[in-house]
Predict the structure.
Amino acid sequence: MGSMPAVMEGLLADLGSWKTDHCSLVKALEIVGTRSTLLILREAYYGTTRFTGFAQRIGITERIAARQLRHLTEAGLLAKRPYRDEGGRTRDEYVLTDMGRDLLPVILALMQWGDKYLQGEHSPLLYVEHDTGSPVHVELRSDTGNKVELENLGVRLNPDWRRPKPAADVGD
Amino acid sequence: MGSMPAVMEGLLADLGSWKTDHCSLVKALEIVGTRSTLLILREAYYGTTRFTGFAQRIGITERIAARQLRHLTEAGLLAKRPYRDEGGRTRDEYVLTDMGRDLLPVILALMQWGDKYLQGEHSPLLYVEHDTGSPVHVELRSDTGNKVELENLGVRLNPDWRRPKPAADVGD
DNA sequence: GATCTAACTACACTTTTGTATAGCCAGGTC
DNA sequence: GACCTGGCTATACAAAAGTGTAGTTAGATC
């Protein structure tokens, strides 16, 4: 039932003694912390590239599609690329950058969690290694090759970490 | 630059021909689609269990803490467990269920993405296999043991999938 | 130069998430 | 039985995120 948390090493063990400033999760959520941004990424993984495609397939208004596509583009997850359909003018479509691609584990982990807990017996889609057809899953592994469970996940301070210099106090 | 999307197999290849009803990602986001819910999970992984701990460490108001802790408890990710400090009354604290634990890859994947793209040279925390001290990362692997990249990720219809019967039309 | 089209903006609004301050309440101890 | 404490609610707002309908725009073709 009540499972063990991660192993908080060293000074981190006393949760009352440190703050979560500079948390990477907080920074990540500033960019992809909403429903619509994550669904746009899903669509990009599926191969959607065009404004109307995103809005229609996700089922969001064009206003939101425009706002979030701009947001993700400015943040560097998507890039605009010109295209030209025969008989049409040149326009821009949206393609994943490496930064956007690298969120795939997040989306797939959410999907598989949903598959497991929020669908009935079977889920609508399967994710496989295309080559072999063998099922794909998201895993936590260490460099030694072991799978890592929460109880054996250590969290420690990075000795190389340097606190970014605070923006110089403007005004006396 | 413009990277290839996943391999959409069979009927899925034509994005215009199908809808994303029943999408597991959508269902997952209905539960953990906000900043505060994901931060509460982070804290639960770190070992926070008490109301005040969640609110203070995350830096959210007690109102939001109460709302989202109730939400996650009702959804089954957290469970209330009575505790008793010496000299205090019995109260309830919040502990992870298996359902909550199983979101660890999502949170860790977001953190590592943030570490890579949103921190400077070094990130504040390290995630390691506690046993060995060896770094941990989130990976996509198939049952054959291979790492899977987006270009080799196949998405296909699940042949066992049955569309849930629509809620019987109440009122003609 | 009128027309078509996909990208995108404008306006008016609702819902959800969130802040800030203050106060309630149950069941322990003193 | 007064008091303390941590979980939790009340009231009043602010700020995002999101809806729905309609209109604008740029550069192709006809």
